[in-house]
Design brief:
Largest sheet: none
Number of helices: 17
Shape: elongated
Number of strands: 0
Distance between the termini: 89 Å
Strand content: under 5%
Order of helices and strands: HHHHHHHHHHHHHHHHH
Radius of gyration: 29 Å
């Protein structure tokens, strides 16, 4: 009974697939038998791939074989299979060919194909991969491509990519342009915070402070802005009292988050306020009992207090 049901399902799938094939069910059956033959040979021995001849059908079987070559690192064979098929403008062919180009270092050309196919997820993965291997040119180019596809969505990503490469003026330009172009965007206050972050990295600390304050006026509940402003006050501007106020605000917005307590306690410790530092570290441990920074700080500060005459 189960075998009959399985056979019926297979027949239905074949008929459904054939409806989209220009040459009908015979081509579909031939293509499917070829694919099964390929899979059987790969299961028995991947070396048998060279023994398989391509059927005279649309490119679905060729794509499967090209992808297997690509997986095995045989990009030249994959390219030889795909090149004659490019004129058909088949989406699967184009996408697979772009993968071959990317694998052989022709990343800009691959990005161009993915852009035409609107493959944003693939481009995001390509950007991440390029960043991981230190290919800054491809990293930037991938996000520039994504930006062309959806400027509002990918402004932040492109600006942060520029920032990571110390290209601060370009990051600033895109963020300011987005603020003008999309004034009601859900990302508007994020763009302002990122702009302040750019100013921090560029050493323009007064402008950074002003921009963080402007961000807070637009979005008073932005936890990251309070955090970054507090860090600016604590580190670059040497204004610990203002840093304390920022971290207290951060805690009031998210009383269950331990990071605000850690930053506040460290600031108290930095200015020598041992009592408040100890009290804040102890509060932190209520939320995160195993926090190593807090445990070490408590031991350090307790020893200091005990040694003080």
């Amino acid at each position: 009974m189960k075998s009959k049901i399985a056979l019926l399902v297979l027949v239905i799938l074949i008929l459904a697939w054939s409806a989209f094939q220009p040459n009908g069910i015979l081509v579909t059956l031939q293509d499917s038998f070829w694919s099964v033959n390929l899979l059987n040979k790969l299961v028995s021995s991947s070396s048998q791939i060279d023994q398989i001849s391509l059927p005279e059908v649309p490119p679905h079987s060729e794509i499967l074989l090209a992808r297997q070559y690509l997986k095995d690192g045989q990009t030249q064979f994959a390219q030889e299979i795909l090149l004659p098929l490019l004129h058909e403008q088949d989406r699967a062919v184009q996408g697979t060919y772009a993968e071959v180009l990317f694998a052989t270092g022709q990343k800009i050309e691959a990005f161009g194909i993915w852009e035409k196919l609107n493959e944003t997820i693939v481009l995001e993965r390509a950007a991440d991969h390029s960043a991981q291997i230190g290919d800054s040119q491809a990293f930037i180019a991938a996000y520039q491509t994504l930006y062309r596809l959806d400027p509002e969505k990918y402004t932040s990503s492109l600006a942060l990519a520029f920032k990571s490469q110390d290209r601060f003026s370009e990051a600033e330009e895109f963020l300011l342009h987005a603020r003008v172009e999309y004034p009601r965007s859900e990302y508007a206050s994020d763009w302002l915070r990122y702009l302040a972050d750019v100013y921090v990295d560029d050493g323009n600390w007064q402008q950074a402070e002003h921009t963080y304050q402007k961000t807070i006026k637009e979005n008073p509940g932005d936890l990251k802005t309070w955090r970054n402003l507090g860090l600016l006050y604590s580190s670059q501007l040497n204004m610990p009292e203002k840093a304390i106020d920022s971290f207290k605000k951060m805690i009031s917005l998210a009383p269950g988050e331990s990071y605000g307590y850690l930053l506040l306690a460290q600031t108290y410790e930095k200015i020598g306020d041992t009592g408040n530092a100890l009290d804040t570290y102890q509060k932190l441990l209520l939320f995160s009992p195993d926090d190593s920074s807090a445990l070490q700080a408590l031991e350090r500060l307790t020893d200091t207090e005990n040694s003080t005459p």
